[in-house]
Amino acid sequence: MMKGSQQQQQRPLLIPSPRTPGKEELPYTPVNASIDASIPVSSMPVKPYSDSQIEMSGDFVRNPSSQSIQSKSSSGYSIKEVSFREGSDVIVNPVVRYGSSGSNPGRYGSRGASSGGFGSSYKEIKDEDARLVYVNDPVRTNEKRFRFAGNSIRTSKYSFLTFLPRNLFEQFHRIAYIYFLVIAILNQLPQLAVFGRGASVLPLALVLFVTAVKDAYEDFRRHRSDRIENNRVASVLLNGEFGDKKWKDICVGEVVKISGNQTLPCDMVLLSTSDATGVSYVQTTNLDGESNLKTRYAKQETQAKASLLGEIGGLLIKCEKPNRNVYGFQANMEIDGKRISLGPSNIILRGCELKNTDWVIGVVVYAGKETKAMLNNAGAPSKRSRLEKHMNKEIIILSLFLVALCTVVSLSHGVWLRRHREELYLMQFYRKYDYSEPEVEKYEYYGLGMEIFFVFLMSVIVFQVMIPISLYISVELVRIGQAYFMIRDDRMFDKSTNSRFQCRALNINEDLGQIKYVFSDKTGTLTENKMEFQCASVGGVDYDNGKAISTEDGQTGYSVQVDGMVLRPKMTVKVDQDLLHLSKMKHTDEGKHLCDFLVALAACNTIVPLTVETSDSAVNLIEYQGESPDEQALVYAAASYGFMLVERSSGHIVIDIQGERPRFNVLGLHEFDSDRKRMSVIIGCPDQTVKVFVKGADTTMFKVIDKSLNLNMVKATESHLHAYSSKGLRTLVIGMREMSTSEFEQWQSSYDSASTALMGRANLLRKVANNVENNLRLLGASGIEDKLQQGVPEAIESLRTAGIKVWVLTGDKQETAISIGYSSKLLTSKMTQIVINNNSKDSCRKSLDDALQLYKKLSNVSNSNDAGHVAGTNQLALIIDGTSLVYILETELEEKLFELSSKCTAVLCCRVAPLQKAGIVALIKNRTDDMTLAIGDGANDVSMIQKADVGIGISGQEGRQAVMASDFSMGQFRFLVPLLLIHGHWNYQRISYMILYNFYRNVVLVFVLFWYVLFTGFTLTTAITDWSSMLYSIIYTSLPTIVVGILDKDLGRSTLLKYPQLYGAGQRGESYNGKLFWYTILDTLWQSITAFFIPLIAYWDSTVGVSALGDLWILAIVILVNVHLAMDVVRWYTITHIAVWGSILATFICVMVIDAWPFLPGYWAFFMIAKTKLFWVCLLGIVVAGLVPRFVVKVFVQHCKPSDIQIARVAEKFGHLQGDAETEMNPIFDLPQRTATT
């Protein structure tokens, strides 16, 4: 069934290229062939179909260029809509609408687009920009001056020799690492040596080592994958026969044969296929994530030659140089003295898989790293979390603080030296002369200035721990742990696709807890993108009427019997009994009209029927494969009414029409493009007539319908379309007309001329299509339902309650988008709708001004009624179309749009192009400090996903392009609720606390060292041993912060879901801000004073040595910071106890081990001082004195001014909210507006 016709005749092939999602021009790549006009129409050679997607009224291909029809008031909703008149009171009207009512084509994209220019794929290839490929002559192709890349690929970053230098180079991109490297180098100098040389290098070396091990393991996996890939085997033409050759040895110019279900080893131009007409099918899942089949073609001129291996040589291909555009290809081929053009439909790319085709033969044009797949082998752009950016500011403050401390010490040291300058000759450490020998010698004393400078550098070394190097690696480990628990969360497991949540970027986990704006696609994101045919308008009659359109009998499905086998569509569609009855009355005018309508549904598409076996050997299913779910729904609908597409080849289709199986020749096909917004197919019918069937968006179809034929039918159909759109259905208009022989010959001549043009081919083919798509007879319209995903209304409600503004950016028409807006609870009956549809910049300016004026009047009314709570009583919803955005984005009107949209509760953008989606995100991102999140499922959402602070891809029906460009991916929109309200909240709280705690624990140690310096003549000697100073951030205090950062939960899941307002803590930055930072520094100052001065006072008159005091100080600090952490832990687990109390125990063990080595300073000091009761009393006194003030302040604040989190935590503890605790939470809609920054 999948084979082409075996008739060996020349066919005029119209071969369109694959549609590029989100592109303005859709190229066509025809074959240069001719047709004999004398051939009867019934036996006329046919043209293959394309694999394009067809636009429904929802603008499935996402590139709107025209404005939608003005919507009428919907009676289905009770909408509060307000308008105003100059000098009058506010009055209630059906809708606030700005803009004209016409349907005028406009630009699309934020900058507009020209539709008439030459696409780059159709310009003449200059010699300097060309690659010459001699078919089956790799030696000549790869001669020395033209040597091209081999097919060996390498995705690994390092080799054995380059790993160490390159990995270190990459790691030292972090400024903090360079800082610690400089510190370690300074400590190696004799004049500046403060710590042991080995001990000073240990922290940095450990961090570098751990990171290097992680990078090495990741690269090892890449090496292993590369080795497997390079050693795969393909069939290559060698000495006139095909033989096996490893992928890595394949060269440009070689001829390769690929069998069915095999993967392509390189980019190849098709020369021949197993189908006589040169058609083949590939699956590009590995390339762009699309799982549907795509069609590729071999030129008829090479189809016959390639079957004769001896004649396959002698061909020359001139193609463009390697580039990343997987949807474009520009080349031409010289064969038998003439030149023919090649396009995207003639090339199959590395990574694609051959399907439903026995074999193909092609010539390699790009290999290895020059293939399009490898050129596109890049991950999502790197993003940095907001907390990390803020953390850098605090690190700069701490650096300045460090410089200040070092300056104080060095200047004080200079004053001390000057004050004791007469004593320096004999004073220990500063003797200028050595009198121990007969000849007096000078010590290395460098003078007052240099001594001050050296002390400054030594101070930097001693106080280096002020900048917490361990914070970086701790945060990375915590993020990995957080990602693990997000991935394992069953609340975000999609059973329908058996897919879990994926963390593709580990560096922005905490940003999930601060989102203020969510920008969502509609189709496939809010909806399932599983299209289901619901209703139809045929001949001006609505076969729906708002009632159930099927009975149980109607759901059994249509089936036919062929050679004893029963064929039945894989999917059943509900049918209207009246329409089903009419389809059998072919002798009536209404029946003939319906027959044409159903033939159009079955024929005007690019669907490929596949036979699927079932458990019943007597029954087979027909599965319709295609890129567009809309087309699949229409073909299944036609099959349910007895018009079953059962066979398609490159030149004909067979439709089983209620038991009869006529064959229709596909004479030509014009695929969809974003200017025409429709597609057409020219069919040679069994009755010797030629008909052109056209389907497309209503905005363009009614321009080419001959309304004089039946004006009443046109008006009725328009009314039905509006009703369908109001229900949220995706609509499509179908028309047709018969072509005379002369018209067909004229079309064929024009087409052949356009298809052989080497420049401007797409523009010429578009004109040919426009000429044939006119004066159509209206057949009817269809309505397809794209159902909401489960839980979408509840998810949007929860997000809105959490203070998150949800904007929907869709390519659908306005009525459809508004309907989905209501069903998803994005729009409510309490909202005042502001609709902006304009065709010029001036009208857009006036509409925005009027809307802002309306907002002010509504505000005044609300102020007089309820003290100004506008958000509570007059919520605004902005609805704007893509045509208007063309004149607003990237102009001075952006500021007005931002001002208006920021006052709206919901924003719905219709008919928007992919670049406009990114422009809307930039509108908010560039003017506020609010965090943005974009979520989508298709290639048209990639720019929006990458533009937002956080990008989420939905692994849905449109492939995995969005997933591959995202930071996180999941299966359903509703998973946003647990992701943001639970994991986002936890991640933000944990990382925020962790950063502040790391600052605290390091600064407290620095202050203790500083106080000691003040009492030792500013000599920078240290009581704490070198090893204890180095191990402080590595062993003594690091593990508890990591465990708490991964596991601690300030609130439970049920509480966070029950009270979404709690999410506002992250939006307001309650857990990490400048005020908390300075409070932490003040607390640190007090704790350092208690930790240093209590032992100093206690042992002031004793004979205890400095090393013993140093052990007491380091133990006191470790106990202090760990008990401090324990006071803040909310959820205790066994591992938390082990980490906190185990770290204290580990510190005691390490101090004892260090003091047990005779060659280290402070030998046996700990064992001497630990025998005394005073030692233990000091430890207890330090902890109590250091933490009591913090405890008192904490209790006072929680009692007198509790936060939302603290209120909810009490409610959790006692099982319910006591009193008016719920009403005490910060109101979401009264949050202060952030100052816009431009």
Write out key terms for the chains shown.
1238 residues; ten-stranded mixed β-sheet; nine-stranded antiparallel β-sheet; 37 helices; disordered C terminus; ligase activity; magnesium
Characterize the structure shown:
By secondary structure, the protein is of the alpha+beta class. It is 40% helix and 17% strand. It is built from 37 helices and 40 strands. The strands form eight sheets. It has a ten-stranded mixed β-sheet, sandwiched between helices. Strands 22-21-33-32-31-30-29-28-27 form a nine-stranded antiparallel β-sheet, sandwiched between helices. Strand 1 and strand 2 form a beta hairpin. The longest helix has 39 residues. The chain is elongated and about 125 Å long.
What's the short story on this structure?
This protein has 1238 residues and is α+β, with helices and mostly antiparallel strands. The two termini are 61 Å apart.
Give the SSE map:
Layout: E1 82-83, E2 91-92, E3 96-98, E4 130-134, H1 138-141, H2 163-171, H3 175-188, H4 197-230, E5 233-238, E6 241-246, E7 255-259, E8 267-273, E9 279-283, H5 285-288, E10 293-297, H6 300-307, E11 316-320, E12 331-335, E13 338-342, E14 347-348, E15 353-355, E16 359-366, H7 372-375, H8 386-419, E17 433-434, E18 441-442, H9 447-462, H10 469-487, E19 502-503, E20 515-520, E21 527-538, E22 541-542, E23 560-562, E24 565-569, H11 577-583, H12 589-603, E25 608-613, E26 619-625, H13 629-640, E27 643-648, E28 652-657, E29 663-670, E30 678-684, E31 690-696, H14 698-704, H15 711-726, E32 729-739, H16 741-755, H17 761-772, E33 777-788, H18 792-801, E34 805-809, H19 814-823, E35 832-836, H20 841-866, H21 870-873, E36 876-881, H22 882-888, H23 894-901, E37 906-910, H24 914-925, E38 931-936, H25 942-947, E39 950-954, H26 961-964, E40 968-970, H27 976-1014, H28 1026-1036, H29 1038-1047, H30 1053-1058, H31 1064-1067, H32 1074-1098, H33 1106-1128, H34 1134-1155, H35 1165-1169, H36 1173-1200, H37 1204-1214
Parallel strand pairs: 3-35, 20-34, 20-38, 24-26, 34-37, 35-36, 36-37, 38-39, 39-40
Antiparallel strand pairs: 1-2, 4-11, 5-6, 5-7, 7-16, 8-14, 8-16, 9-10, 9-15, 11-12, 12-13, 17-18, 19-40, 21-22, 21-33, 23-24, 25-26, 27-28, 28-29, 29-30, 30-31, 31-32, 32-33
Domain P-type ATPase N-terminal: 133-198
Region (Disordered): 1-31
EC number: 7.6.2.1
